[in-house]
Design a protein that fits this description.
This protein is mainly beta and about 190 residues long. Strands 4-3-2-1-5-9-8-7-6-10 form a 10-stranded antiparallel beta sheet.
């Protein structure tokens, strides 16, 4: 059993899921429904909490799931290039880093995934009741079938106005340059 922390269209979902030998992402990709034990649902409209001993939720109702449990096989990992992205899925705005091969574009990586796209260093923003919430996590799986917007975030950069080079001033007689060694008796 692993902890599940998920973002559904109308509530947050917390509980325990049986994943067997694989990872949570493997379970999400292979089964249409998830049996969640010791479930706690938190309504987005009013923040009301509902506890249930178990509930079955269709994976297609989940916009995103926080990754927990075992990581994948280290031997199968590839060198990747990351791109900062912003994703809208249901009522959630997600920022994070999508990983792809050094030659791939982020949109292509996003479209090639089975159903769940992993984002690292992710932040999920949403409203719960009357308040704004911002959650941060190491890895988040986003259900690409529920994504309404996906874009690369252009990093801000500073532009400095062009400054014309100036002619260096002539040093005063007897001055010592900043890289020179003072001569004995100078002063």
């Amino acid at each position: 059993m692993v902890e599940i922390d998920a973002y559904a269209a109308d509530c947050r979902v917390h509980g325990q899921v049986e994943v067997g030998e694989g990872r949570l992402s493997d379970q999400l990709n292979r089964t249409p429904d998830l049996l969640i034990r010791d479930a706690r649902l938190e309504g987005l409209d009013d923040g009301q909490l509902v506890d249930m001993s178990e509930v079955t939720i269709a994976r297609d109702e989940l916009c995103a799931v926080v990754v927990s449990g075992p990581r994948g096989d280290v031997a199968r990992r590839l060198h990747t290039r990351t791109t900062h992205v912003e994703v809208e899925a249901g009522p959630y705005l997600v920022e994070g880093w999508v990983h792809g091969t050094p030659a791939s574009e982020p949109l292509a990586v996003f479209l090639r995934q089975v159903a769940w796209v992993p984002l690292t260093e992710a932040t999920v923003k949403y409203r719960c009741g009357a308040g704004d919430v911002s959650d941060e996590m190491a890895t988040l799986l986003v259900n690409r079938h529920l994504v309404s917007s996906f874009r690369a975030v252009k990093e801000a950069h500073l532009s400095f106005p062009s400054i014309a080079p100036r002619t260096p001033k002539t040093a005063a007689r007897g001055a010592i340059g900043s890289t020179a060694t003072p001569r004995e008796g100078a002063g």
